[in-house]
Write a structure and sequence with these properties.
Blueprint (H helix, E strand, L loop, with lengths): L17 E4 L3 E10 L20 E29 L3 E7 L2 H5 L15 E5 L4 E17 L3 E12 L7 E4 L2 H16 L1 E2 L2 E2 L14 H11 L4 H12 L11 H18 L2 H6 L1 H12 L29 H32 L5 H10 L10 H9 L5 H8 L11 H9 L4 H17 L17 E2 L10 E2 L5 E2 L2 E2 L12 H9 L3 E5 L2 E4 L8 E8 L2 E9 L5 E6 L5 E3 L1
Parallel strand pairs: 11-12, 16-20
Antiparallel strand pairs: 1-7, 2-3, 3-6, 3-7, 4-5, 4-6, 8-17, 9-10, 13-14, 15-16, 17-18, 18-19
Length: about 550
């Protein structure tokens, strides 16, 4: 028998694949809506013939509900009775502003998932509407009378975490858990999605930070392999992965990471010809001077050069130059990462090595973009200029997609304190603005005089959702739960907990407290969890306990 599942508890039986969450607050209520407080009372989710505890609507009006956190799913409405017309309009929003917007207003859209709909509520009905990402729901009662028993969020089932992170820094813990939740919501339908509102697609470059986080949180889940297969099968010969040349490189990067984590030789053998083909296609685009001649360059939206841009000419040319540098660095990183596979599985490595030599002929002078400078460092150009670019302005210039690489590259310079400050400033600002998952993009300068996502738009404050965003995700089209922003989880696992896989059954465990006094965390392996506990003692020494399955070799 189906029963109400409290938001803080999971169903004890696996067939209960959804949780039902009561609203946490009413943002606004207007019109002939009475006894709205009844919506906060936990009730049996079954309509009866004699319901007493209902919310009454006697005509036109609306209510905006806050479910307290980002949700993947829909809204379930139990309606007791109706008189006359029973049409209602339901609008989902990742922010309050989005629930109030008309389609087309500030980028509000029904693309990818329907977020704005008109439905009919029937007598004695129990109906679920929508399948999207949201935190807020606005219900407009367009005509007639009705008595509503319950409005609950129907939340899709999520994975149980294996990896963990806890320290004596509450903000750092919240950042970890919020990033983890972001990824968890984006694991849908057997694949890794970019976002649960938009695009709900498998972008193979986007998911590289997701896969890095997934290995830290859940281990080698099936969705990673499924996503590799899906993108392979969606790429006919002569085409680029996701129609972006750099994303073909990211597919190879993901393949290497998958093999390193799984030791799945059969999968590599199955994909050998495909991998060799796209590697050769990439290498064929490398000019003799080391520049990469892709038909379409893309590293990150913040670095993307567009010929029709309205940016100043000098800014536009700088983007073009640094984006070209980024493609060079990405191919160097890809070939480096592919070398173990080239050797083990008998790839024809001659074309790749010739391209690698040409790539290394080129030296670039990066002046602005942190992610390009980071790629340079990870591709072998560890110099003072790249360090300066990454440190310039602290959290300014970070983007959610490629922060993992920026933080990792700064580790090469021993810049632990600066990375800590960047993480806490950048992700902390999103949390201050009401984030319960991390966003498709964020610029810390947007936060100045901006309203939180759980506030009604208007007044003298900017709408952090509707008034910002860039490129293809302006305004309310901007996703506030985007999987690529989970890469910070991987950084924290690898560099703070200090747990890294270094061989088939071998892991390095070297925690870095970075000013923390207490630290505890876990990391999934095929044989069980590695658990690390660290505490700074009164004399300044560090007490570290590591627990791992017997079959795993630990390098401390």
């Amino acid at each position: 028998m189906l029963k109400f599942i409290d938001g803080d508890r999971r169903a004890s039986r696996r067939e209960f694949c959804m949780r039902y969450l009561l609203p946490k607050a009413v943002i606004k209520c207007d019109g002939e809506v009475k006894k709205v407080e009844n919506l906060f009372i936990k009730k049996t989710l079954q309509i009866g013939l004699c319901e007493q505890c209902v919310t009454e609507i006697n005509g036109k009006g609306y209510i905006i509900l806050d479910f307290g956190k980002e949700i993947s799913g829909g809204v379930r409405i139990l309606n007791y009775s109706t008189e006359g017309a029973n049409r209602v309009r339901i609008r989902f929003g990742e922010s309050v502003g989005e629930t109030c917007a008309e389609i087309g207003e500030k980028g509000a859209t029904n693309d990818h998932s329907v977020r704005d709909m008109i439905v009919s509520l029937q007598r004695y009905s129990d109906m679920t509407f929508g399948q999207t990402g949201f935190r807020f729901v606005r219900i407009d009662f367009l005509s007639g009378k009705c008595s509503i028993k319950s409005v609950v969020a129907a939340e899709d089932e999520k994975r149980e975490y294996i990896g963990s992170f806890e320290s004596d820094d509450k903000l750092l813990n919240e950042i970890w858990h919020t990033a983890a939740e972001t990824l968890n919501l984006c694991i849908r339908n057997g694949y890794l999605w970019d976002g649960i509102k938009r695009d709900r697609l498998v972008w193979i470059g986007d998911i590289y930070p997701e896969t890095k986080a997934a290995y830290c949180l859940f281990g080698n889940i099936a969705e990673i392999k499924n996503s590799l297969i899906f993108c392979r099968d969606q790429t006919p010969e002569g085409s680029w992965m996701n129609n972006i040349p750099a994303y073909s490189a990211w597919w190879l990067m993901n393949l290497c990471e998958y093999y390193f984590r799984s030791d799945d030789k059969e999968f590599v053998i199955e994909n050998r010809a495909f991998a060799e083909r796209i590697l050769n296609d990439l290498c064929a685009c490398v000019n003799e001077d080391g520049d990469v001649n892709f038909p379409f360059n893309f590293i990150d939206w913040a670095t993307h050069y567009a010929a029709d841009s309205d940016e100043p000419a000098d800014e536009s040319l700088l983007k073009k130059y640094e984006e070209t540098a980024g493609t060079n660095y990405l191919l160097r990183m890809t070939i480096d990462k592919m070398r173990p596979l080239l050797q083990e599985f008998g790839f024809n490595a001659e074309i790749a090595e010739k391209a690698y030599k040409r790539l290394n002929k080129k030296a670039y002078d990066i002046k602005k973009h942190k992610q390009i400078a980071a790629f340079g460092v990870l591709a072998g150009e560890k110099n003072a200029q790249n360090e300066r670019v990454m440190l310039c302005g602290g959290a300014k210039g970070l983007t959610t997609f490629l922060n993992y690489f920026i933080f990792t590259a700064l580790e090469e310079y021993g810049r632990h304190a600066e990375v800590f400050d960047m993480i806490k400033t950048y992700y902390g600002k999103m949390l201050e603005l009401g984030a319960t998952t991390f966003w498709e993009d964020f610029d810390v300068e947007w936060a100045e005089n901006a309203a939180k996502i759980d506030e009604m738009p208007g007044g003298d404050k900017k709408d952090i959702h509707g008034d910002f965003g860039r490129f293809c995700y302006k305004g309310y089209r901007h996703s506030l739960c985007h999987g690529w922003s989970s890469g910070v989880v991987a950084y924290m696992s690898e560099n703070i907990l200090g747990i890294n896989k270094i061989g088939r059954d071998e892991y390095s465990v070297k925690p870095n407290m970075y000013g923390l006094n207490k630290l505890k965390g876990s990391y999934p392996t095929p044989y069980g969890e590695i658990i690390v506990e660290c505490e700074k003692m009164a004399d300044g020494s560090l007490k570290t306990d590591v627990h791992a399955p017997d079959c795993i070799k630990i390098d401390k």
